[in-house]
Amino acid sequence: MPEDCPFRVACYLVDLEPGLFMRLSHLLTAGLLVSAWGAQAAPAVSEPPAPAAKAEAPAPAPGIAQDIVLANHRAVYDLSLAEGGGTRSVESARGRIVIDFRGDACRGYTMLTRQVTELSSGESGPRLSDMRSTTFEGGKGREFRFKTTTLTNNQPAAPVDGTASEQGPGESVTVKLKGAAKPLTVEGPVLFPSEHMRHLIEAARAGQATLSAKVFDGSDDGKKVYDTFAVIGHAGTGPASDTARDKPLREGPLAGMPHWPVRLSYYTAGAGERTPIYTLGFDLYENGVSGALKLDYGEFAILGDMVALDIDAQAGKTAAKEGDKGCTP
Predict the structure, then answer these.
(1) Of 143, 126, 145, 149, residue with least CA distance to 135
(2) What is the mean pLDDT of residues 223-238?
(3) Residue 138's domain spans which residues?
(4) Burial readout 204-236 (b: 16 or more C-beta within 10 A, e: otherwise)
(5) Where are the beta strands (DSSP E) in the chain?
(6) Does residue 13 lie within any of the structural domains?
(7) Number of domains in the chain
(8) pLDDT one-digit tens code per residue, 305-327
(9) Alpha carbons 159 and 161: distance in angstroms, whole number
């Protein structure tokens, strides 16, 4: 891929969930979302997460993971079609995701994302998607602002621009979209992306094997809340010895950092869903960076290979110091 065209990709978007790549990038910022979306293909039948009140491993209450410092970083992932599996409804795929994640638990988190993807099908031909997203999440996970613009084959779609706010710890979340007649209210607890990733890290550190949570990330049309169910594997250090992927993680400062394989399934909100919409596999690092990405959509799967990583170490030190003394007004 030429240096002057860092965002070229191939993306089949006819039947593909529009928010998949956006959600992937959200996860990546916090360690969430495409690293080896490390699992096998989405199962034909799988158990959805139990309702929040009955979940075996419910999401921790907001604010429980204050000692977790998410790395300020810029990461670049090249996308490609996974070999084998599925029905091959997508014949080729290429692309790139670039994310820039900044902030801390006191001032909140800002994420800038650009994704250019091109999936190609023999039936519909190639379709090119260029998505740009900006989000801000309050440090206490109580507010979330999002704006996304998308071009598909150079044709613009209506932008998604809105805010979501939690009415109180564990209570309902109200979503307001520009141009919408009235707000949407969803019963809580609902987590926003960075807070969700902090809870995943908290659960992994504690040795939990699973974590259920409702998640809102502003993707798709900005109106959807998803039930999620994560399966967390045993901690490891260093990348797998049999892979050449994710070079910045194999040779950089994260080479010896603890990380966990995570398989995260997304379901349409509500009881009765037996099959996930899709499954994300990734290695979740202790500072929220993700590697070994795999997004499994059942009929096909896409891999993300980290090709560049720039971590702002000084920002991490400042965030850790402020975390020790608590946030000040």
Answers:
(1) 145
(2) 89
(3) 20-325
(4) bbeebeebbbbbbbbbbebebbbbbbbebbeee
(5) 73-81, 92-104, 108-121, 125-137, 143-152, 155-156, 160-166, 173-177, 184-186, 190-191, 210-215, 226-232, 236-237, 258-268, 278-285, 290-296, 301-311
(6) no
(7) 1
(8) 999 999 998 875 665 565 555 67
(9) 6
